[in-house]
Write a structure and sequence with these properties.
The structure is a single chain. This protein is of the alpha+beta class. It has four helices and four strands.
Length: 113
């Protein structure tokens, strides 16, 4: 399994607006296409205004297909112009699960479905 970590550095003071848009619109669209949300966080200590979210995939082909479907969704395309001006930068990392953690992650994901 793989976990994609996406980090967005937001403009100072824009986190409430970003979260409002995400909660009202973006989350519904993402969960329709990317069902394995591992977590969604904002930094408390360290670099401020940093939002991190993580998504689990069985393999990289699943990630590619699901993200392509989301990017093609007209609702997602209409959502992006609302949040992009709030962002300064984006970083994405893809992590491969350690062998001993795969089953635990699968159980965690099954518990929230």
């Amino acid at each position: 399994m793989y976990v994609e970590e996406r980090m967005y550095l937001l403009q100072v003071g824009k986190a409430p607006e970003y979260f409002k848009h995400y909660e009202e619109t973006g989350m519904k669209i993402q969960l329709r296409h990317l069902p394995n949300l591992v977590g969604y966080y904002v930094t408390e200590v360290g670099m401020q205004n940093l939002v991190t979210h993580m998504w689990a995939y069985d393999d990289l082909l699943q990630r590619e297909k699901q993200r392509a479907a989301m990017q093609a969704d007209p609702e997602w395309q209409a959502y992006l112009p609302k949040i992009r001006p709030l962002m300064i930068s984006q970083e994405t990392k893809i992590h491969k699960c350690a062998p001993f953690f795969v089953e635990r992650l699968k159980k965690m994901l099954a518990a929230v479905r």
